[in-house]
Each structure stands twice: as structure tokens, then as C-alpha cells.
Design goal:
The protein has two domains: 74 residues, no CATH class; 333 residues, no CATH class. Helices cover 71% and strands 1% of the residues. The protein contains 20 helices and two strands. β1 and β2 form a beta hairpin. α7 packs antiparallel against α17, α10 packs antiparallel against α18 and α12 runs antiparallel to α13. The radius of gyration is 25 Å and the shape is globular. The N terminus and C terminus are likely disordered.
């Protein structure tokens, strides 16, 4: 504003006041809309406006919004008065890509990702993606194959976007978004357990209800809790160590670090409680093993890893044998072990109320075996278990459950030996990369890597009884892959440097 114009305004109006006028006008308009529109529409509108405003500042904000909104898929699909053209996770990912492209065009960058987006994590996932793609030649349904194929394409895209957008410590926001999404779901699940759902088919002891959050089913909800709980626990420890390091160096208390440590500790407690209330035996078993994995990975030296693991196992054994744990939980865990590692032939088995769940799961396992036997190399097609099930099911088990209730068998049946070997190779590489990235010089980043190690172990165990790449959980897992890729790059540099290390 020129001096002449400034002198023409009242004395109380300054350049700073003029600069604030657009924000004041926006606030007034927002207030008018909030009063005129229904509360639900106003909240949705303000949420979209907030996401777009943050996206204009940085595309990373859109990625954080994605991991928070993606788990709402089933809730929105069942409760929204009008159906969306795509589910909330896919819409968020589409917005992320558009914002990312606009950001690169605005700053006159190439539209193709640079070599910074190359990572051993990306390569490992890409190998499985290519192997699974070959199953198209045997696919019973091309649309079912395409649906599953697109899931893993989105996982690859998320890894690339994380590597491109995260340059320094922005990964902390991604961890925050993932934990916030899981904690909000945990609160909903706890409310449902004490009668907030009214789902009669999920009644426990005629008093409570199995928690299912926004997922509609307890098992994937428990899976979500179990995937994020190790990350929350490790992040809490990491921020505590960060606060201690600041105190030792500068002799001052870091309120931000302590607040973050408390936040993630409380989040872990919420997730652990919600996981237990899901009454999912696969989630319980995976959670237990993931905590042991974290304890094993914490020390830098192998003998420290071994000592911590032995102490944890002995403590667990004493608690189990002395009756410290509630009988209902012990009985539930015993059945989890028996069902997870059962392998008998159930053709012609006598079904009762007590063994129905076990027989049903084993029947679907045997159907997966039959598919793999018929198509040993390429399987029946990625995502085609349900489509092929009528041809390979056991007698009396007419209706499919959507998957084999064992993701390893599911991959074997759908993608054959080629896809199964590639999937196993992918996870062996990811575990090795995660283990090596524990060398990260930053204590917080090192703890987050250890939390991711616990997450991978949890996923490996729970996958023995379920498929967790559902209800947009694959978007959360893809973002976790991206965080690992970023931290690995910060630890070792580029792939070329890694080869010479």
C-alpha cells in the first residue's frame, strides 16, 4: 500500500490490519455457513476446507489426512446418506496425487519422481507386485484381479510419495497421523464393547460386545490395533529418550518431547485395551509376539537382545502358569494356538458348536490347497479366492469367507508358487532392512524403526489366521513402508551407497 493510500485511511487502520481483512471475511462467511447449514454438512465442509488449506501449504498434509481418514471406509459406506463415487481412502489418495502434481508443476519440477524415490523397500515390494501380476493369465475374474492389483499399486505409490515428500523429519507427522487414526478407532471400539454397538452376533457372556471400531468386524479392527500398537509404544520410548538427551546436553526440560512421550504412551494403552476387547485371538497372539520382538530388537548387541527376550518369556510363562491371567483370556489364547497351528483333514468331520470356527477355517485352508494344486505356478488369479471357491470348496461348506483365513495360503492359492516365493522374499528383505536401519543415529528414529519391526512381526503372525490387507489397511501399511524407506535412506543413503557399505 502506498503512503498516500495509507494516509487516506483512518489512523487505527494499518497495513497489518488490511492484511488480516481476507481472513476476517473468511471467518465471518464460515460463521454464517455454520449457522445456516445442517451441523453434519457444516462439519464435513469445514473438514474439507481445512484439508485443502493444509494441502496448499504442503502435500504432506494430504498424506497425513489420508492415513487418518482411510480407516473410516466401512463406516462411511454403511452410514452415509449418499454414497461416494470412491471410498474415502481412494478419494484421499487421488487428492494427494493431484496436490503432489500441482506442487511439482508450481515449483517447476519434473513430474516423474527422481532417484531419491528409489529404495530397497520399494524394490522388494515391486518384485512381489510383478510376480502377483502374472496371475492375470489364470484369473477367474479379471475385475477381481484388477481390484487386488490396484491395492498393491497404491502401496507402491505411497512408498514413492513418502520418499519424494519426506526430506528431513516430516516422517514424525506420518507416525502421528497413523497413531491418531488408530486411537480414535480404539475409543470407538471401547465404547462399543460396553454396549454401544448392540450387535447381537458379537455378544460376549451376554453382557458385552466385541469391539469392531469403524471396521464393522472385530478381526480387522483388532488387526488395526495390533499393527499400530508397537509403533506407538516405540515412539513413546523414542520421545522419552529424546527428552533425556536434551536434558543431558542443555540441562533443560523439553516440554514437547515429554508431551509427545505421554501422548504415545496413552495411545499405546488405548490400543492395547481395544485390541483385547476385540476378542480377536489372532490379534492377541500377534500382539504378544510383536512385544517380544520389540524387546528383542531394543538392545544394539545380540546378547542384550537374547537376555531381554529370555526375561520376557520367563515372565510370561510364570504369569500363565500361576493363574495371574484371567481364565477367559487363557482359554481364548489356548484356542488361538490350537486353531492357528491345526492341520488335520476336516472332510467328513463332525461339526459342533464348540469346533465350528476351527472346522470352518480348516475347510477354507483346504480349499486354498486345492486351488494351489490345480494351478501351482500362477494360482487362480490375484484376489480371486472367492471367485474360484465354488470349484474347490469342501462338501457342506458352500459359502466363502472372502479369503482363506490365512494370508500365506491365500497368496499361494491366488498367485501360485511364483507369487508365494516373491511374497516370502519381500518380507524377508523388509525384515532385514528394518533390522539394519536400527543403526539410525537419531534415538527417536531408531525407536520408530524398532516399532516398525514389531509391526512387521505382528502382521506376519496375524496373517496366519486372517487377511489384514482389507478396509484400506493396505494404505496404512503402505505408508509404514514409506516411513521405513525414508529412515533407511537417512541411515545408509542411496541404494548405490548401500551396495558399497
Amino acid at each position: 500500500m502506498t503512503r498516500t493510500a495509507a494516509h487516506s485511511l483512518p489512523d487505527f487502520v494499518t497495513n497489518k490490519t488490511v492484511a488480516r481483512l481476507p481472513w476476517l471475511a473468511a471467518a465471518i462467511c464460515a460463521g454464517i455457513l455454520a449457522g445456516a447449514l445442517p451441523a453434519q454438512i457444516a462439519i464435513i465442509g469445514f473438514g474439507i476446507a481445512a484439508i485443502l488449506l493444509c494441502a496448499a501449504i504442503t502435500p504432506l498434509a494430504t498424506l497425513v489426512a489420508l492415513v487418518i481418514l482411510a480407516p473410516l471406509r466401512a463406516l462411511i459406506a454403511t452410514e452415509a446418506p449418499n454414497q461416494l463415487p470412491l471410498d474415502i481412502g481412494q478419494l484421499s489418495l487421488l487428492l494427494l496425487v493431484l496436490v503432489w502434481l500441482a506442487y511439482r508443476v508450481t515449483w517447476k519440477r519434473t513430474l516423474l519422481p527422481t532417484t531419491r524415490a528409489v529404495s530397497p523397500v520399494l524394490i522388494a515390494v515391486f518384485i512381489f507386485f510383478c510376480a502377483a501380476s502374472l496371475s492375470l493369465f489364470n484369473a477367474f475374474s479379471v475385475s477381481a484381479w484388477l481390484n487386488e492389483w490396484l491395492k498393491w499399486a497404491q502401496v507402491l505409490l505411497l512408498i514413492i510419495l513418502c520418499l519424494d515428500l519426506v526430506t528431513q523429519r516430516e516422517w514424525e507427522w506420518l507416525v502421528f497421523g497413523i497413531v491418531v487414526a488408530a486411537s480414535a478407532n480404539a475409543l470407538i471400539g471401547i465404547y462399543e464393547y460396553f454396549g454401544g454397538s448392540g450387535a447381537e452376533h458379537l455378544v460376549i457372556n451376554e453382557l458385552f460386545f466385541r469391539a469392531f471400531g469403524t471396521f464393522g468386524q472385530p478381526n480387522p479392527f483388532g488387526g488395526f490395533m495390533g499393527l499400530v500398537a508397537p509403533l506407538a509404544a516405540a515412539a513413546s520410548l523414542g520421545y522419552l529418550l529424546q527428552g533425556i538427551a536434551i536434558w543431558r546436553k542443555d540441562h533443560r526440560v523439553s516440554g514437547a518431547s515429554l508431551f509427545a512421550a505421554v501422548f504415545y504412551a496413552l495411545s499405546f494403552c488405548l490400543l492395547a485395551v481395544a485390541l483385547i476387547l476385540s476378542w480377536s485371538r489372532g490379534a492377541w497372539l500377534g500382539f504378544l509376539v510383536s512385544l517380544l520382538a520389540i524387546l528383542f530388537a531394543l538392545p544394539r548387541r545380540w546378547w542384550g537382545n537374547l537376555i531381554l527376550l529370555v526375561v520376557a518369556l520367563v515372565s510370561l510363562g510364570l504369569a500363565w502358569s500361576t493363574g495371574v491371567l484371567p481364565d477367559s483370556i487363557v482359554e481364548r489364547m489356548n484356542s488361538a494356538f490350537s486353531e492357528t497351528f491345526a492341520s488335520s483333514d476336516v472332510r467328513g468331520a463332525f461339526v459342533t458348536n464348540e469346533n465350528y470356527a476351527l472346522i470352518e477355517r480348516l475347510a477354507h485352508w483346504q480349499a486354498a490347497y486345492n486351488m494351489a494344486e490345480a494351478y501351482p505356478l500362477l494360482g487362480v488369479g490375484f484376489g480371486n479366492y472367492e471367485e474360484a471357491y465354488p470349484n474347490y470348496r469342501l462338501m457342506f461348506w458352500k459359502y466363502p469367507l472372502g479369503h482363506a483365513h490365512n494370508y500365506y495360503l491365500n497368496v499361494f492359492a491366488e498367485t501360485g508358487m511364483i507369487g508365494f516365493v516373491a511374497y516370502s522374499f519381500m518380507w524377508l528383505v523388509l525384515l532385514w532392512i528394518t533390522w539394519r536401519t536400527r543403526r539410525h543415529p537419531d534415538p527417536l528414529a531408531r525407536c520408530v524403526v524398532i516399532g516398525l519391526f514389531g509391526t512387521w512381526v505382528y502382521l506376519a503372525v496375524h496373517s496366519l489366521t486372517d487377511n489384514l490387507y482389507v478396509n484400506n489397511l493396505f494404505l496404512t501399511i503402505g505408508t509404514m513402508f514409506g516411513i521405513l524407506a525414508v529412515l533407511h535412506r537417512q541411515t545408509f543413503g542411496s541404494v548405490r551407497l548401500l551396495r558399497h557399505s
